[in-house]
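Chain A, query sequence.
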Amino acid sequence: MHPRLAELDWANTRIGEISLRRRLEPTTKTEVYEVKLGDEYLMSSMFTVAEEELARLTLAALPDAPLDVVVGGLGLGYTARAALADARVRSLIVVEALAPVIDWHRRELLPQARALTTDPRTTLLEGDFFALLRDGAGFDPAAPDRLFDAILVDIDHSPVNVLDPTHADLYTPTGLRRLGSRLRPGGAFGLWSDDEPDDAFLAVLRQCFVAATAHVVTFANPLTRGSSANTLYVATTAG
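Chain A, predicted structure.
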């Protein structure tokens, strides 16, 4: 029998103390995994619908052909595993800035971690997604100029609520065009946001990509006995 609350691991990082906890959620009687940054909740296994839809919706915008995919932000692994569930995906690079998060998966402290870490298509890359993009190093150390069919990002709370000030430039025309230059013709960019659709950001996306859409994904929230929602932005480059 698991204790009601267990801290599975914690570590000091450049952005603060990060911890992984497992607890029994009394409202659903289920086991929940949570990541906290200091006293702030970063992610929870209670709410994964939008993280999985980020992969499904973005990849749905692509043709029926082999796909090379980048995921910015490993987290609890839901976006990455949803991408691997698409049979078209032939390679997946997951960029994660915090070494402990990669370590949790490799040590299988998280359920279903093995499905991700043992898939031969997966590469877990420790690195700052934003810096790799900004500095031109790219997402494949063996091929700095490599292009991809899809880039999925779930790192910040939203385009205007970032975890670190150095992330903010991604959400500008310069940053978005830089990201678009890493996509193949007809490629797709997907972004998770905790906020409602932002018309100003959508307008910037449409400046930088051929098409862009905001999708509102709703899901049951047992804590409020109602529903909650996230926003997913999907933008595509010219074919």
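The chain has a mean pLDDT of 94. The helical segments are 49-60, 78-84, 99-106, 113-117, 129-135, 173-180, 199-208.
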